[in-house]
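Example 4.3 (complexes with small molecules)
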Amino acid sequence: MRAESILSHLAPHISRIESKVSGKRPALGWEAVTAAMPKNRLQSLLVRVKWAGDGGAWQVLVVVAMKNLWPQEWKTQDPSRAQKLMELALREWNEPGICRRCGGREEDGRCVVRTRDKKHPFLTCPTCHGTGIRQARSGRQMAQIIGIDEKTWRDTWSRRYAAILAALNTLESNALATICKGLTDREAVQ
Ligand SMILES: [Zn+2]
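Answer. The structure with zinc ion bound is encoded below.
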């Protein structure tokens, strides 16, 4: 069973469409998936935000991620810098490689942004030139967003960023494995 198809049941509108297309009731419902969710709070929040489109859980996710993934020995003069780095890592993890301006929204085969012009409501995204692909931020840009100098980014913070991203990906795959296992066990019982 693929995690993607399982998690589509977390988003009620998707499972409704799916049941219309396939002509049969989805085998798994919201309750089954909820029961199989990881007990670990951070893992559960990661799944809710990325796979169930629960944007409302974003702020809590940032707070819980800070508590769990920011080691005490990572010093910073200003705690808001730590939070900025965490948010950058979470955004990258959540939507890897997708243009931030248009979010990869496609119309007629190109990525677009909305305009106020009713006759031409869409414009080819000027940031990604319609490709939907995000340019990686330079070290200078990352340093600027966080509020540190470029050397500090290179020497220390870039490694922290990479470590957080790696931790997020591991937590996510563990969470998906937990959900798959929970649902498989449930099927075996029935
Ligand atoms: Zn774009």
